[in-house]
Structures are given as C-alpha cells and as structure tokens.
Design brief:
With 99 residues, the chain is mostly helical. Helix content is 79%, strand content 4%. Strands 1-2 form a two-stranded antiparallel sheet. The longest helix has 31 residues, at 2-32. The radius of gyration is 17 Å and the shape is elongated.
C-alpha cells in the first residue's frame, strides 16, 4: 500500500504546483490588463489563450463586472485556492494514511 500512498503524495504535489502556476498566470493576466499591452506579443497571446476559457465561463455564469471592474479573476483565484486546500489536502491525507 505504500506505493499507492507515494503515488497519491506525488499526485497531490504535482496538482498543487500546477494550480499555483495557473494562479500566477491569472494574476499576471490581471496585472497586464491594467496597461495597454501589444496584442501581437507572444507572451500576451499565451496569457490570453491560457486564461480566456476559464475566465469566459465565469463571466458567462456570473456577470461580476461592476463599474468597469472585472472580478472574474478574483473568483477564479478563490476557486483555485479552494482546490488547493480541499483537493490537495485530501490527497495528502489519503497518501499519509496509505503509507
């Protein structure tokens, strides 16, 4: 059972890292939206292509734009934080119980 425990521990670590990276991508996208970035810049294109599908779904379900301020990145960051605490935490607990 220790192999399965190690697998879940590794899965939790990788998931935590991926969620953290995606959270930083959303933060950078939100910060870049405050200036007028060049839309043909490859970094800006990557940020938009990586975050638009998730942010679009949040904007479609919850119209959270008040006074021209878009709150969808805050909602997505809160969801990522919830997943890091709930999902990664449960995977880590499961891994330690299986060891």
């Amino acid at each position: 059972m220790f192999v399965l425990g190690n697998f879940f521990a590794a899965l939790a670590a990788v998931l935590n890292m991926l969620l953290s990276i995606y959270m930083w991508i959303i933060i950078i996208r939100a910060l870049i939206s405050w200036v007028n970035p060049d839309p043909y810049n490859p970094i800006v294109q990557f940020l938009h292509s990586a975050t638009d599908p998730v942010l679009y779904r949040v904007r479609r379900w919850l119209p959270v734009s008040f006074g021209g301020i878009d709150f969808s990145p805050i909602i997505v960051i809160a969801a990522i934080y919830f997943l890091q605490i709930f999902l990664v935490g449960n995977l880590q607990d499961l891994a330690y119980r299986l060891r």
